Amino acid sequence: MEYVSAVPVPQPRAEAVSAPDSAGSRRSLAAGLLLGAAGATVVLLASGQTWAQGRAAVGGGALPMSADGQDVTGLPAALAIVGLAALVAVFAVRSSGRLLVAGLLALSGLGAALSAFLGASDSAALDEQAAQATGDTSATIGALSHTAWPYVTAAGGLLILLAGLLALRYGRRWPTMSGRYERDGTPRPRKAPRKAMDPDRPEDLWKALDRGEDPTREA
Questions:
Q1: Are 94 and 176 in contact (CB under 8 A)?
Q2: CB 204 within 8 A of CB 188
Q3: Number of H helices and number of E strands within the chain?
Q4: So what's the pLDDT on residue 131?
């Protein structure tokens, strides 16, 4: 009569849960850095270009005038600098602090885009120039026209916004600054005290000479 063994047959172990996709983390990190840096560069460069042009009536003629982005609004450039600082700070903080900095990065991009878009049709800067040129505080600019640079600036702000959204979504997986640059209060290991030299041991004499010490000098 045959007997059935009661020993359970070993089952293959379930595969361990894989760690976060490092390749995906590197891609999101590279994309965030590229978008943030490119967006800030675009905003800073485009905000220095001519945004609006017009003519002010002076005497019997017309005086051509123009205003760049800084004349219209300095907010996009300022927010671009804030975005750059936040982009760098993302790697200096962890956990909830990283989320806060990533949120600041996204908000700076959104603010830069909105302020540039609103400034695309603004004529206050040219009206002020016309008032100064004519000496008439009620003077306004005529033949007003706008360039595409405000919209380029807004596009740069959107790039910063995308970098912030990537940091919010994947920032927890991104690396932080090396721990050797941080002070956590942990005492550093002390070096073992140097063993006293034995003048009767030739190897101790050679080691002392290698260290530049005089083995004949008494301690």
A1: yes
A2: no
A3: 7, 3
A4: 73
Strands, DSSP E only, in 49-130? 50-58, 61-68
Cβ pair 167, 83 in contact under 8 A: no
- 8 A C-beta contact, residue 80 and residue 69: no
**Amino acid 60: pLDDT:** 67
Strands 142-146 and 61-68: unpaired
Distance CA(130)–CA(16), nearest Å, equals 72
Residue with tokens 């059935």, as numbered in its chain: 4
Q: Which residue, chain included where needed, has tokens 């485009």?
A: 46
Query: b/e per residue, 142-155, with b = 16+ CB within 10 A?
Result: eeeebbebbbbbbb
CB 68 within 8 A of CB 47: yes
Positions of E strands within the chain: 50-58, 61-68, 142-146
Q: What is the mean pLDDT of each run of 10 residues along the chain (219 residues)?
A: 51 44 75 92 94 76 78 92 91 82 94 93 76 66 81 96 91 66 50 56 65 59
| Type of residue at 123 | S
> Does residue 217 come out as left (phi exceeding 0), alpha (psi in the -120 to 50 range) or beta?
beta
The predicted structure's pLDDT at residue 55: 77
Looking at the DSSP bridge assignments, the partners of residue 146 are: 52
Which pLDDT score, from 0 to 100, does residue 72 have?
A: 87
Burial class (CB in 10 A: 0-12, 13-18, 19+), 178: exposed
| Number of Cβ within a 10 Å radius of residue 94 | 12
Amino acid identity of residue 91, one-letter, is F
